[in-house]
Each structure stands twice: as structure tokens, then as C-alpha cells.
Amino acid sequence: GFQLSYFAVLGIVIFYKPLYLMAARGFWWTDKIWSLLVVTVAALIGTFPLTLYYFHRFPVYAPFTNLLVIPIVTLFIYTGLVFFMLQPFPWAAGLLAQIMKGLSGGLFFITKKSLMMPAAVISPVWLHKGEVLLLYLIVLAIVLIVTTRKPVSVIFFQAVLLSGVILMLIKGTETYRKRLIVLNIPGSSVCVFSSGKTGVIRGDTDKKNVTWYLKDIKGTLGLEKLVTSKVPGKDSMDLKEIYFYKGFFKIGSVTGFLLRDTVCACRKEVKVNYLIFSGRKWWLLEKQLLSVRPRRIILDSSVPAQAIKKIRQMYADRFVYSVHEQGPFYIEER
Fold first, then answer.
1. Which of 23-37, 138-152, 189-203, 285-299 has the highest mean pLDDT?
2. Angle CA(156)–CA(158)–CA(160) in degrees, nearest 5?
3. By the 8 A CB rule, do 46 and 10 touch?
4. Which segments of 54-157 are extended strands (E)?
5. What string of DSSP letters covers 5-51?
6. Is the pTM of this model over 0.70?
């Protein structure tokens, strides 16, 4: 909110005057409409990279919708101020309350209808921080070209575009990344395993709160293929350098074991990088550690506070990472 507010004001301060002078006329009513439209566009220019970064969507009709929304909001604010001033007179305050109710209803009606129009929203759009900065530099370069019309502005614009091409090439090399992520979704066990553009989600994927958290995970991680399944029992999977077998997993050189309700009896000791523990049955961990030797123990978000405390007391000599206390666990290799 802080960023969007200040960048909206900054956009108005920088872009309003040049845009307004492009088509300013002497007629009062056309001038007011043009001025209102320019204010909206200037604010959007200042905020649209951040809007794409945080919300992954862009409202196409926002400049035109605001021609109606801004006057309604302005009238609503002033009516609200008068409403509080007229509290000693209930009949007058009640009348203003009905007016405010009508204004808010009209506001929601306009915004709802604008979102139902064809191609009303561009989504999903996924940007990294570097791409947000690049968008702002492109906007700045275009403004400099329009306002100064100097060759140095064109050179600056070309340099920004070249930087964008380089950034795209760098992102292209990231397709070989292998990642293990233990998500911090309250009361749930969810892990993401990805190799390049392919990913697997394992855990409580059928829970409603988990579904809400994961609705944008594919775009966030830049995945093209995403397979979803529950926590493995005696299952196996081999999916583009992501391997699962009876609770064990391997992604590149990263190895591990998923422990939830059942201990896996191994004939000999198996060394892994990580043991990811789920649920409240902390005593299973002691049994599993007889045959599986991890470098680190990861407690996911389904492990309750008392079980976390008990496990930390039992294995003080080991590196125990609690997702519930320390946030999502993330490991990556290239």
C-alpha cells in the first residue's frame, strides 16, 4: 500500500503535465474529462509495474472506469464527512446514509460490470524484481524521448531494451534449477519438488486452505508442468530428474525422506540430506532415525508446537528446522 500510494503520486507529478498538454482544449467540460483521464493514466503509469508484480494482473479498462469511479468516490467521501457532522440530527444523518448506500452500490456495480467485459483483465503476469525495475526504466526512457526529443534519450531507451534482452537470456538459463521447498501453510504438509520447468507438489493438496495458497504457485515458480499428489506411501515416481520411491526422494544431488504416519523399515542404514517430518506422532521420528540418517530434520507446518518442542529437546545435537517457527524451507541447486 505504501509503495502503490507513493508511486501513484509520483506518476501524477511526473506524467500529468506532459500528457495533459498533448490534447488540452479550451472547452470546460472536455477539459475536465481529459484532465480526469490523464490523472488516471498518470497514476497507472506510476503503479502498473508494481501492480503486475504483486497482483499478477492488469485491469485493461481501469482508465475509463475511473471516469465514473473517481467522481463517485469523491462524492462518497464528502457525504461521509457531512454524515458525521449531522449525527445530532438523526433524520438528516439517516438520509445521507441512504445516499452513501446508493453511491457504494453504484461503485460496486460499475467495477463488477467492467470486470465482466471482454478481455477486461490481463492475467496471469509474473514479474521478478529485475523486470519491475526494467519496466520503470522503459517508461522513463519513453517519457524522456517524448519530452526532450534528444538523441541521448533514444540511446538510453536502446540500452534499456538491450538490458531486457540480456535479462531474458539469463532467465532462460534458469531452466536447469532444481528446487526443494517446504511451504509454510498453517496446519498442512505441503512440499514442492521442481527440476527446470517441471514440478511436483506432494502433501495435503485436497485441503481448501492449501488449494487457495497453491492457486498461483505454478506461475510463481515459472513452471510449465505441475503434477499434484498426496504424501507418498508405497508409491514411486520418476519425472524428469525428480524421483520418488517409498517415501524417499531425489532431485539432482539432493536426497531425502518424507516421514508422516508410517515408518519405513530399511535393511541397512540410508544416508540422506533431509528428513521431512509431518504430523504430531513425534515418536515415529525416533524409530525412523534407526535406519535413515539425515543431515537435517525439517519439521513442516503440520507439526504442532508441543511436538516441535519435544523433537528439539530429543535431537539438540542435530540441525532441526521448523517451518512453523522459521518460515518456508528452500534449497536450490543449478
1. 285-299
2. 70
3. yes
4. 58-59, 121-122
5. HHHHHHHHHHHHHHHHHHS--S-HHHHHHHHHHHHHHHHHHHHHHHH
6. no
